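Entry type: protein chain
Record version: 2
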Amino acid sequence: MDEQQVKCSFCGRKKNEVDVMIAGVTGHICNHCISQAQTIVKEEASDKSTTDLKGQIELLKPKEIKAHLDEFIIGQEDAKKVLSVAVYNHYKRLLQEPQEGEEVEIEKSNILLVGETGTGKTLLARTIAKILHVPFCIADATVFTEAGYVGEDVESIVSRLLQASNYNVESAERGIVFIDEIDKISRKGDNPSITRDIKEGTQQALLKLLEDSIINVAPEGGRKHPDAKMVQVNTKNILFICGGAFDGITRKIANRLQTQAIGYKSIDKEELDEENMLQYIAPQDVKSFGLIPELIGRLPVLTHLNPLKEDALRRILTEPKNSIIKQYVKLFEIDGVKLSFDKGVFDFIVEKALEYKLGARGLRSICEAIMLDAMYDLPSEEKKEHKITLAFAKNKFNKSKLGKLKVA
């Protein structure tokens, strides 16, 4: 066939009228039609994902959610129970078909987790999102400021969630956001000062995010521009989980319990567990720490994480599905090396984690210090088995940078 007579089977354009003409078995297609087809396919896929969204959220009962959490997180029974109920109620509310004439509207309940560093706040939030198959992102409250100050805009949190949902707005609007270090934006005192506190301003900026508001987000992660077409994301159905160590809040809890107001049942001093005062935490303690009442009101579900003791750390090291030790065994297995440990090694790692006061997060750092040389040497050797003895672990840790640090 004469090249001048070759036409696109879809639009009829001749070959000399287009940039590219692709030949098929029985016809041709030009670059214009390919581009248009790509746009149609993208729109159809987007519509389909929106329609099937309810099927994507795997809503489990509270007991089932907790059972899944138990596989990855050791201890923290109270926190897991509270989270399971809160998350179940949140997504049950979203998946409920609106009834005509229904007057009762169930409001969402954002969550505040209080616990020492390394007790599992981030892991709880991440695991919940993984179980439910919803978009998830983590934000650090310390980098955010109110408008007009140097720092990130709080609205960038929604941008991260949109990115995590592959820019599917409907999916992002049902996602989970974990805001860490929320205690670091506490104002300096409980009493509002005449001069506005910058940290209080940051809390104020978070208020509209936590409730029902429309946030304009730059598409595909681009920067905001006056002429740019913005994507609108409604935060009404986004579940916010905030976490913080709230270092020193136990003193405020103790003071409240000792000077409890008349009309409230006081806790018997003999029944008090002084090693874990966080279990008695109440909203007024968070307020006296420096969070503004409006923010506390938007985080109605308050729970605590217990400090990790020796037994819990020992179990965290080896028992969960994704435990640190199982990860190292898998890493060496890929290189054809069977890795094993003396039992005393685990006790040594736990002992150092307690000494450095790093919680479960410290277990990884200590393991890395012990395992570095083995991970460096063994892939180049033909060794098929390797055992980490207590003597080996002590020697490698003491020579590492971490081992040379003095613990205060």
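Comment: The longest strand covers residues 239-244.
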